[in-house]
Write a sequence for this structure.
């Protein structure tokens, strides 16, 4: 397995972002680099096993620790206040930092440019370039980056440069607030941070068990292995706070220490 040694890039204004890197696949000049942005409570360590499979798939995987997590710069008091106020500037600055990180990594590591060619199996085959993967709350930053053309913190040359590399963005299980949605007032689905019986001290553990549970949605279609397009929030198995089996139970004590950051829960809830 590739080294899990944490590296750090220093951005403008002294902001630091830490990450682990699988490295480039040996002898490949057409690999794609996938940047992973984790969600809340769990940092990038949760994805560490992905590194071992990257080269066989002609991929380079970079697991980025978001701001406020392992080795990356915590939010300042000003930023926390902006987050409390729902400031657009907060998200613009955050996505600009991601853009700057991508720009530095691409240049420093000489990432292969995105190329397109005709293929007998597809209309267009793509090689090289980068993909940006967001999970859960991490999707908020990815979506903010997609609106970068209106972001005053991203220089035009950086924006145009990224256009030559970014091939796709992947939103994996995004939170409702990533899209600016408000859940229906009559929704019965359990949301830990809205539970008045859960203390601030217990919230990280409750959230960790909640998101790592396995749910049996009544509307699940076994044939297509997905939820039907007609499914709504009322059709989900979402009332339980957790299932009998949870992924967290398979983690070792070392995994929990490395991958779970309860102290960051407070600011995640503000989002």
């Amino acid at each position: 397995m590739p080294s899990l040694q944490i590296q750090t890039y220093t951005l403008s204004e002294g902001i630091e972002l830490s990450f682990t890197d699988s490295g480039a696949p040996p002898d490949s000049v057409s690999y794609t680099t996938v940047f992973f942005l984790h969600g809340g409570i769990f940092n990038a360590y949760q994805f560490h096993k992905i590194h071992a499979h990257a080269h066989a798939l002609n991929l380079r995987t970079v697991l980025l620790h978001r701001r406020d997590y392992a080795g990356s710069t915590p939010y300042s008091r000003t930023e926390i206040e902006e987050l409390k106020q729902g400031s657009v500037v907060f998200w613009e600055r955050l996505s600009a930092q991601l853009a700057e990180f991508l720009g530095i990594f691409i240049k420093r590591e000489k990432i292969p440019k995105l190329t397109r060619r005709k293929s007998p199996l597809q209309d267009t085959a793509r090689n090289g370039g980068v993909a940006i993967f967001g999970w859960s709350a991490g999707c908020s930053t990815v979506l903010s980056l997609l609106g970068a053309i209106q972001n005053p913190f991203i220089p035009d040359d950086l924006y145009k440069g990224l256009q030559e590399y970014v091939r796709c963005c992947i939103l994996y299980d995004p939170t409702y607030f990533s899209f600016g949605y408000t859940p229906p007032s009559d929704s019965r689905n359990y949301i830990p941070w809205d539970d008045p019986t859960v203390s601030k001290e217990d919230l990280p553990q409750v959230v960790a068990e909640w998101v790592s549970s396995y749910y049996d949605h009544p509307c699940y279609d076994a044939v297509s292995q997905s939820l039907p397009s007609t499914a709504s929030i009322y059709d989900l198995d979402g009332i339980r706070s957790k299932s009998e089996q949870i992924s967290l139970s398979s983690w070792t004590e070392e995994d929990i220490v490395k991958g779970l950051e309860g102290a960051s829960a407070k600011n995640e809830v503000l989002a």
User: Anything to note?
Assistant: The mean pLDDT is 90. The CA atoms of residues 192 and 198 lie 7 Å apart.
